Amino acid sequence: MTLAGKTAIITGSNSGIGLGIARELARAGADVVLNSFTDSDEDHQLARDIATEFGVSARYVSADMSKPDQCRALVEQAGACDILVNNAGIQHVAAIDEFPTEKWDAIIAINLSSAFHTTAAALPGMREAGWGRVVNIASAHGLTASPYKSAYIAAKHGVVGLSKTTALETAGQGITCNAICPGYVLTPLVESQIPDQMKAHDMDRDTVVKEVMLARQPSKEFATVEQLGGTTVFLCSPAADQITGTTISVDGGWTAL
Asked: How far apart (Å, rounded) are the C-alpha atoms in residues 86 and 68?
């Protein structure tokens, strides 16, 4: 399929899952807008590299997803938004009674509230065009829970609920909204954690991945950023025109347990 002529905004997309999704959308022909809050030379170079590799328009727009006005300004500065991928997120681990208030506020703002603000800014243009796709990157933790991740889990459950409401409010308008719920994904950040886990558990790489890091993922394999990008592209295809208001788990069977 081709997404030529469509513009996709992907929040939190200068690395990891967001960058992987941006690349797959560009591969399908979409013009892409990368985003993070860092605004470095490397960020802008990523956009130039995507433009060169895939022959699309690609640019980087800096916006802090913890700031409502910047979330909305991102959509405005993009100039068009046919496809919105809300991916930006952060994490902190602590018991509820020890969870820092500022960490709770930041996680809710970046992981959940930013998706509300960008969606609110993008929907008028999608309605005018009669076509739009909102893809929210939730998590297996949007459907289940683990201890010590209260803010992240609350936010990701909220993303799933926001996706359902967005779908209902846009039903019959050529717009769909869905949430992708990944399990553990092999990103550069996760890859960098493997050596420390090997030392901590005195295990080789394969064993620590399967028995520690992927203990809850029945496939015992990481999802890849390319797979999440491919799932996003599918949700933008005609085959997914009637898929809206739901979750798609890319979690190796985690939520089937």
From this structure: 14
Q: 3-state DSSP call for residue 36?
A: strand
Q: 247 - beta bridge partners?
A: 179
Q: Is 152 a catalytic residue?
A: yes
DSSP 15: S
Per-domain boundaries in the chain: 7-183+224-256, 186-222
What is the spatial distance between Cα 116 and Cα 10, in angstroms, rounded to a whole number?
Answer: 14
Domain spanning 7-183+224-256: CATH 3.40.50.720: yes
- For 111-143, the pLDDT digits (tens) are 999 999 999 999 999 999 999 999 999 999 999
Distances (CA, A) of 114 to 34, 70, 199, 246: 15, 9, 37, 20
Instruction: Specify the pLDDT at position 1.
Output: 65
Which candidate in 60, 148, 152, 184 is catalytic?
152
Find the angle CA(174)-CA(241)-CA(78) to the nearest 5 degrees.
Answer: 55
Sheet holding 132-137, edge to edge: 58-62, 31-36, 7-10, 83-86, 132-137, 175-182, 247-250
Chain segment 205-248, per-residue pLDDT in tens: 999 999 999 999 999 999 999 999 999 999 999 999 999 999 99
Tokens of 56: 């699309």
HSE-CB at 160 with a 13 A cutoff on CA atoms is: 19
